[in-house]
Design a protein that fits this description.
There is one protein chain. The chain has about 160 residues and is an alpha+beta fold. About 25% of the residues lie in helices and about 40% in strands. The radius of gyration is 16 Å and the shape is globular.
C-alpha cells in the first residue's frame, strides 16, 4: 500500500488560546471545509464540545458529485494547546492519520498540518490518487488556508 504525505503550514494573528479553542471544536471543521464536499458532522456534539483522546467523530461527506459517504475518525492523541491527531476508523481511505500542531509565535500562532493517507485497491488506488484524489486533498487544504486567513486575518511576518 502506497502512503502519501501532505504537509501544510500557516501562521495566523491570534492567540494560542483562541486557535486551540477554534480548532479543537469538532463542529468548526465544517466551517473550513469546501461547501461542495457537503460535509456534515453527525456526532451529537455542541459548539462547546472540545476534543479529547478517544473521541469519535462521525461525518457525512460527498467527495465527488453524487457520491455520499459516511466517515468516522477518532481523536487518538491530544496535548492541550500543542497538538491533536485524528485517525480514520471508517471511511474512504485505507489510511488517514492527520496531525494538527500549534506553536505560539510572536504575534500569533503557527499551525502545521501533517497528513499521511493511503487509498485502497492497490494499482487502481494509486491511479485514482494520481488522477483526482491528491488534487482534491490539496484543494481542501488550500480552501482551509484561505478561509482561516479570512476568518482570523493575515499574519504579518
Amino acid at each position: 500500500m502506497k502512503t502519501y504525505v501532505l504537509k501544510r503550514e500557516q501562521s495566523i494573528p491570534i492567540s494560542l488560546d483562541q486557535a486551540w479553542d477554534f480548532f479543537s471544536s469538532p463542529l468548526n471543521l465544517a466551517r473550513i471545509t469546501p461547501n461542495d464536499m457537503r460535509f456534515v458532522v453527525t456526532s451529537d456534539y455542541t459548539e462547546t464540545t472540545k476534543m479529547y483522546a478517544g473521541m469519535i467523530i462521525t461525518y457525512k461527506i460527498s467527495p465527488l458529485p453524487g457520491i455520499k459517504m459516511n466517515w468516522m475518525t477518532e481523536i487518538t492523541h491530544v496535548d492541550d494547546k500543542k497538538y491533536f491527531v485524528d485517525e480514520q476508523r471508517f471511511g474512504p481511505y485505507a489510511l488517514w492519520h492527520h496531525q494538527h500542531h500549534f506553536k505560539e509565535i510572536d504575534g500569533g500562532v503557527h499551525m502545521t498540518d501533517l497528513l499521511h493517507y493511503a487509498i485502497p485497491y492497490g494499482a487502481i488506488g494509486r491511479f485514482a490518487n494520481a488522477v483526482f484524489v491528491k488534487s482534491k486533498v490539496e484543494q481542501i487544504f488550500d480552501y482551509r488556508t484561505k478561509v482561516i486567513e479570512e476568518m482570523f486575518g493575515k499574519y504579518k511576518y
